[in-house]
Design a protein that fits this description.
Blueprint lengths: L21 H27 L8 H13 L3 E2 L10 E5 L4 E7 L13 H16 L2 H4 L1 E7 L8 H7 L8 E3 L2 E3 L3 E2 L5 E10 L15 H15 L8 E8 L10 E10 L2 H22 L2 E6 L11 H13 L5 E2 L9 H5 L4 E2 L2 E3 L10 H5 L4 H23 L1 H8 L5
Parallel strand pairs: 3-4, 3-5, 5-13, 6-14, 7-12
Antiparallel strand pairs: 1-2, 2-4, 8-10, 8-11, 9-10
Helix pairs in contact: 1-2, 1-3, 1-11, 3-11, 6-7, 8-11
């Protein structure tokens, strides 16, 4: 990944957002109306057929077929990830990337609303394609799998699929309309302790209890939480702890996830947690292996001009989008936002008070309210991109982005 661009490069206080061009607004709205049944059908199909991270073959295929139907072409060089893709429409020098997420959570389906994310991004691409020629833009659609785990967007960054991108955008399902917020930097480790088995009654002294190491480590992590940087979170689950109660466990495994407001403070947490894990190994005599899982996600930075333009566009659809700088969860869109000016608003619909990552949240993903959010979000993103493309100063800023 390229070196992070400082936030002042992107997060500039914008001048007054120009009035929406009535002609462009009308053509985007008309395109969305024309593709409405396809876009909502896509949302419902992905929701009904959830696939976990890295296994989103049918979702990627559904998105690809709709894009081909709309006249998008697929790049000669495709991403290495088998459930990703790169497609485009138009030939303008200003390249707008729409990031399409579609992975689900094991056992509880689209409990983070990624069917809404996918459909709104695809809808935005279809709306923006209708005005690509007059705005001088290329609409680039990237299938970005495994957001819930390893971070497919980071793989696409590393493979160069954002190298020609001037701005990037997507919307994320939520309970209210919010833009401007950041996210928590995050990393995850797989932790393995290995000891020596023995009969738990006949010769326990001959064993080295790997589960003891994990208990000590988990206790140390719990005690360390008080001294962590503000806003930080450490989560730990035991994934293996022995196979028989009468055998001293020779192996114990855990998954540890660390989150913090910035990569700098995340580094502090990593050092503290590592010492806690080492304490378990030292106390028990077990060996310790720590393996990073996937890519670290950096904190999200949303571009102010795009955020303000999105707010103004959503007002046309009768939505009052709240501007907030509060961090919300974690996303690999953060890595994208350090590379190019980006937007990642929360797209609100009625979820009955449910929170993300629950089956109840998933149950609201194909409601009338969710469908409206898909179409409204698609319009808001397309018009935010249009506003930036049509504004000479913003266009110059976006084209001069130094990330390449």
């Amino acid at each position: 990944m390229s070196a992070p661009v400082q936030p002042t490069d992107f997060l500039q206080a914008p001048e007054a957002i120009p009035a929406l061009d009535a002609g462009i607004e009308g053509r985007v709205a008309a395109a969305l109306e024309r593709w409405q049944s396809d876009v909502l059908g896509l949302s419902h199909a992905i929701h009904a057929d959830p696939e976990p991270s890295g296994e989103e073959f049918r979702a990627a295929d559904r998105v690809s077929k709709l894009l081909k139907k709309a006249g998008f072409t697929f790049d000669a060089v495709q991403p290495e990830l088998s459930t990703s893709f790169s497609a485009r429409f138009g030939s303008g020098e200003l390249v707008v990337a729409l990031c399409v997420e579609y992975d689900a959570l094991p056992f509880i389906g689209h409990a983070c609303g990624h069917n809404v994310n996918a459909a709104s991004a695809v809808g935005s691409a279809l709306g923006l394609a209708a005005v690509a020629g007059e705005l001088g833009v290329t609409v680039k659609v990237l299938g970005t799998p495994a957001e819930e785990t390893t971070g497919g967007k980071v793989d696409l960054i590393n493979e160069g699929f954002f190298a020609d991108v001037s701005m990037a955008m997507m919307a994320h399902a939520g309970s209210e309309d919010v833009v401007g917020g950041t996210s928590l930097a995050v990393c995850m480790w797989d932790v393995l302790y290995e000891g020596r088995p023995a009969h738990a009654a006949a010769a326990p002294e001959e064993g080295i209890n790997a589960l003891d190491a994990l208990v000590v480590a988990q206790t140390a992590v719990a005690l360390a939480r008080q001294q962590l940087p503000p806003g930080s979170v450490v989560s730990l689950i035991v994934t293996e702890g022995g196979n028989a109660v009468n055998v001293i466990p020779e192996r114990a495994r855990a998954s540890v996830e660390m989150r913090s407001p910035s990569m700098a403070s995340l580094g502090i947490i990593e050092g503290r947690v590592r010492r806690c894990l080492e304490a378990g190994a030292h106390a028990s005599g077990s060996s310790l292996t720590i393996t990073p899982t996937g890519h670290p996600f950096v904190e999200l930075r949303q571009d102010l001009f795009l955020s303000e333009a999105y707010c103004k566009s959503m007002a046309v659809r009768g939505r009052d989008v709240r501007f907030s700088t509060e961090p919300v969860a974690s996303t690999d869109m953060g890595n994208v936002s350090h590379l190019v000016p980006s937007i990642h608003p929360l797209l609100g619909y009625d979820v009955g008070g449910a929170v993300h990552h629950t089956a109840e949240f998933a149950s609201h993903g194909v409601s009338v309210s969710a469908d409206r959010a898909v179409l409204d979000g698609a319009f808001g993103l397309a018009m935010a991109a249009s506003a930036a493309a049509a504004d000479p100063r913003q266009r110059e800023r976006l084209l001069s982005n130094p990330h390449g």
